[in-house]
């Protein structure tokens, strides 16, 4: 029996309220969003955002997660964190519902991303088997039974099982809700890493390109922390005071990743403090000022985004931005001047708060799974075939 | 929406072929069974066993699992093993199908127990949260997508989330298939640890008692390994040659666990080599012969089972045995003489090969979950309420 057909008919027969929960690798908070999804008579998908918020991880939990990722741990700790995260997610959902006067019983399902603690789509071989894997902690079954709500989670494993890289998964959301039939569109998310989804006018699934472009906020944030003990460069004010360190800027743009062809993805393994320090050492730049370095890193972030857009997309596109980087005014000004023919807007202008986009996306992925729909895009992830993503726990 | 109602109607409308996969903590093999389940007009459940086998873990995998359980590990290794086990399970299913000429497409679903690497229903508190948890490795989503078959797995988490101990889960199987309306019945499984399910004549769910009685084969096997480098005492021949060490036997039966009241469960944390050596030391027994020790441990296993049956059940019951201990002829003889009024048979006599029982049980639990049925018994696990166990991944 195809379960998808069975669930599909009932699930999609009316609007469904789905809550999305996203916690990223930056551990900068728990994003929760509740939206109502439905299909119109033409078959297009729609949603109404009902509520969203971001709460901080308790600091001990944040430290616990970091320990799990970077140190060797007993299996007891990993098993414990798996259940502990479900309780934290449950609390986030209950708090959001309470603050917006939404009853838990009004929520039809939850799409839980979980906390990524490992992601290695090309693992080494072991005993004739492959260890390609991804691991998002947060027990799907525990969350479902704690809240009495159906939960869909573990979205990335299926794509890896069919040969994909398990990421990115947001492009299906961008395609459904942000594509334009008459205008080339680029969805740019500036999180820790920056990534773009290229949606040519009237494109279909197979024409989507989605790639990481290089650093998003990661380098700026790292050095704001290092020099000023601040989490980020508010409005880009520090960068605005600085001057470009030309030698470093040139070296940064020589990084092979920037001009590499799709598919490509990167992470904090490459773009981190050590990377910058090693370049400063190599270039014999010992006395850079904080402002000048932040300015140069902001420039590099902007140039690497612009370079990828020019090389692989249409620089006259509509560019729809999201992620924390949107709040960096100076960075956005620089981006505009690098892409003068583009029309840059934020998702907020389209009714999607940029802070809530990823949480809405995982609510949508949960909705799709319960509707029996594929959500990975093989041309984007490299998977051999499309797959229904996730596992489902239903408590009643 | 209640998904259970939705799936329930379709799933239970006709017989379904479900494959169960069980790998226990003893790592003595991968048990796979394929059975067809259906409901008769009176509402009772039935199954026809179609195929079963047991294959060994590749030795490197066995070592890898032991390392994960007992050492500190990188999260990369845990994530890798999670996917690797899915591949091994997929191979087991394919091999069984091939050997019995069953097509993969004939299997409607898989019930995957997964490999328990941690089980701690009463975890310590951490930052205002509880760390009660259980962890079975083997990705549900990966297995579903590797085989193209719907998979149900992670059966124990839901029960823990609703306050239970996540074990035992077999009693619902014993109740459905082995209870007798007119005769008190006891299901005795002699695995590493021995456990009993007490099913009074015509009992209902709430009257079921299921407890561990103490050691099953664990002590005998441990010392057969220690003295003879053998995995077990074949037919109990070594024990048959020995004499009881009375002082040790008395001390063993003084172990408080044996006479403790339900609910109770135990494990290799208590009954292991160190436990026996410490008693020998305490009792100043330095020169015991291997035969005499194996005889005494066999006696202890039998007496602890019999004592629990006498104390909490009806010693005139029909006793239905399963597990490796059934093959120990001498142990079974001793058990008969300790319970002279009972009628001891093996599950094999009822058409359930004792080696396949647990795998059939997890196929059955998967079938129940897809039928929207609860499978934990709160009076047995201590859960606050019954729960639909597991998470489901459907690939199509």
Quick gist of this model?
Chain A is an alpha/beta fold and 396 residues long. Helices cover 40% and strands 22% of the residues of chain A. Chains A and B meet through helix 1, helix 2, helix 3, strand 4 and strand 6 of A and helix 1, helix 2, helix 3, strand 4 and strand 6 of B.
Topology:
Two copies of one chain form a homodimer.
Chain A: H1 3-11, E1 16-23, E2 30-39, E3 45-55, H2 59-70, H3 75-99, E4 109-120, E5 125-126, E6 129-130, E7 133-137, H4 140-147, E8 150-153, H5 156-161, H6 171-178, E9 185-190, E10 193-199, E11 209-215, H7 218-228, H8 237-241, H9 246-253, H10 256-259, H11 273-282, H12 290-312, E12 318-322, H13 329-338, E13 343-346, H14 357-370, H15 378-381, E14 391-393
Parallel strand pairs in A: 1-4, 4-8, 9-12, 12-13
Antiparallel strand pairs in A: 1-2, 2-3, 4-7, 5-6, 8-14, 9-10, 10-11
Helix pairs in contact in A: 3-4, 7-12, 9-12, 12-13
């Amino acid at each position: 029996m195809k379960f998808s057909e069975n669930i599909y008919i009932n699930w999609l027969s009316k609007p469904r309220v789905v809550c999305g929960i996203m916690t990223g690798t930056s551990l900068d908070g728990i994003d929760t969003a509740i939206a109502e999804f439905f299909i119109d008579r033409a078959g297009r998908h729609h949603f109404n955002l009902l509520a969203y918020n971001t709460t901080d991880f308790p600091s001990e939990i944040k430290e616990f997660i970091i320990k799990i990722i970077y140190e060797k741990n007993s299996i007891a700790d990993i098993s414990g964190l798996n259940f502990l995260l479900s309780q934290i997610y449950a609390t986030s959902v209950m708090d959001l519902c309470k603050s917006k006067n939404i009853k838990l019983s009004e929520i039809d399902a939850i799409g839980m991303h979980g906390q990524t603690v490992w992601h290695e789509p090309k693992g080494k071989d072991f005993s004739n088997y492959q260890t390609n894997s991804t691991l998002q902690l947060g027990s799907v079954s525990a969350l479902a039974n704690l809240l009495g709500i159906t939960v869909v989670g573990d979205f990335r494993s299926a794509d890896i099982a069919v040969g994909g890289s398990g990421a990115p998964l947001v492009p299906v959301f961008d395609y459904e809700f942000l594509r334009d039939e008459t205008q080339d569109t680029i969805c740019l998310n500036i999180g820790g890493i920056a990534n773009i989804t290229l949606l040519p006018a009237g494109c279909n699934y197979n024409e989507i390109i989605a790639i990481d472009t290089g650093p998003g906020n990661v380098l700026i944030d790292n050095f704001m922390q290092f020099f000023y003990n601040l989490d980020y460069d508010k409005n880009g004010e520090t960068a605005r005071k600085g001057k470009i360190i030309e030698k470093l800027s040139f070296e940064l743009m020589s990084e092979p990743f920037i001009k590499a062809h799709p598919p490509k993805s990167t992470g904090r393994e490459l773009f981190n403090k050590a990377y910058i320090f090693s370049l400063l050492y190599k270039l014999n730049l010992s006395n850079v000022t904080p402002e000048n370095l932040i300015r140069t890193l902001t420039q590099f972030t902007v140039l690497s985004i612009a370079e990828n857009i020019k090389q692989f997309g249409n620089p006259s596109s509509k560019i729809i931005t999201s992620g924390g980087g949107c709040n960096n005014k100076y960075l956005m000004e620089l981006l505009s001047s690098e892409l003068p023919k583009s029309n840059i807007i934020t998702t907020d202008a389209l009714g999607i708060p940029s802070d809530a986009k990823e949480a809405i996306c995982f609510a949508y992925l949960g909705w799709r799974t319960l509707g029996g729909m594929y959500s990975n895009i093989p041309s984007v992830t490299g998977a051999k075939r499309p797959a229904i993503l996730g596992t489902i726990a239903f408590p009643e």
